[in-house]
Amino acid sequence: MERFTASKYRGLTTFDLKILGIILMFIDHIHQMFVPMGAPNWLDWFGRPVATLFFFVSVVGFSHTRSKEKYMLRLYLGMIIMTFGSFFLQKFVGYEEVQLMNNIFRDLFVGTLMMYGIDQLSEGASSKKIGKIVWGLVLILFPIVTSVILISLMSNPSTMFAAVWIGNFIPALLFTENNFLVLLIPLMYLAKNHRWIQCLLIGLAAVFFFSQGSTQWMMIFAILPIALFNGEKGKGMRNFFYFFYPLHIWILYLISAYIYTH
Q1: What are the boundaries of the signal sequence (predicted)?
Q2: Which end of the chain is more exposed for a tag (fewer CB within 10 A), N or C?
Q3: Is this model's pTM higher than 0.70 or not?
């Protein structure tokens, strides 16, 4: 029998992590879309590590991209297209049994905004430029401050409608799909050169969710593929991932609506 050696196993690339995330996400969304037909709850478990995997991939991607501004712009446009695409699809179909609240682009954009703020803060500290330090702090705190402002506006009936629409365009931490969990992105970015710290952060978050009785603790299973990441990009197909996310959700939604109403 041929002996297994470390040199023969090359680990997982960024592409591999994305494919794994997509497969798990697809299973999770089958549960989401077909709950009215009795889809078993255990299908939801497959999706618990997905956000963590994509958060890690975004940290790697943001660290190595040639243009961080363009990287952020793509995520922002994805966030807007996903928001309004889901809104108008639901209005057109009128299938209220399933609500399209998915928008991982919003989570990733908020995370990249905070990572960009960390870069500005670091550069300002190194060059002793107060302006950059202040700008970095503004970017880091912006998603938190906007969350507080939007929640305050939504608590007032006269400003609630305007706040909801403004929230579609503004990155607000508490209005992301994964809420406070998005903070893992800037935290993992700070530890980008220390994989064990990144895995420890994921483990601590998992322990917190376990203590709350949430199945989100299963995010801990993202640690294994992340630990096996070899630092390589692998295959490209960047645009595939940007298109696949909204399209598979919308297609599953339409299939679910058709089956439920026929």
Answers
A1: none
A2: N
A3: yes
